[in-house]
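sanity check this record:
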Amino acid sequence: MSMFMKLFSVFVLTGVILVGCCDKNQKYKLEEDSSQFVTISDVVPDVILEIRYFSTYNFVGTRVDGYMEPTALLTKQAADSLKVVSDELRQQGYVLKIFDAYRPQMAVDHFVRWAADVSDTIMKPYFYPDLDKSVLFEQEYIMKRSGHTRGSTVDLTLFDMAKEKDVDMGGTFDWFGYESHPDFGGNPETGEYLNSDSITAEQFENRMILRRAMLSHGFKGIDSEWWHFTLVNEPFPETYFTFPVRQLKSK
């Protein structure tokens, strides 16, 4: 057994490894009840869905466990807030495109198994070309629990209705690297563009258009991903849900 796998086994047994988008909350419970969730497209009818983990175009390279249908779910509260964001951005000529929202625990577990197999690098050129796969745990790209599993986190971008294409954000969803950080190229707190050697001023401003709209309507971002936002007053801060992603009946 390699030194990495020995360390991995120790971490699993001691509960040190954490999974998903950087959540270290130690108090949690598992829940399979989906009654407090809605299908996002029922609340935001013009949203575009590109559910990467239902497809094979993602960092794993296969459909991820728990994604039964190419749909997106959120808690009612998060979906209602996202509708307000959508309405505001539509007035500016944009609609929302969603890559991921609620993520079941079985999907996060799939990420852990994939990361532990350091020989599986089929998608490395597309998502982490500058990283050795063995550092994904150490650098917290893969963790044992994810805020997505609490149901009020969404990964998204903007679609320009006039140009009929995705807005250029100067980077792609799920890219493992500093280029994905909101402060890559500027100051996200002030919106000031600072670094012409990274992304263009237009690309940075496009990230800020999305960020300002999300933060103005109850969401917060994280330091490592420009596309990732969580409802500040999320209704289930210590609950990790286990039901699969599939279309819910309209309520």
Observations:
- The helical segments are 3-14, 40-43, 76-90, 105-116, 124-127, 201-216.
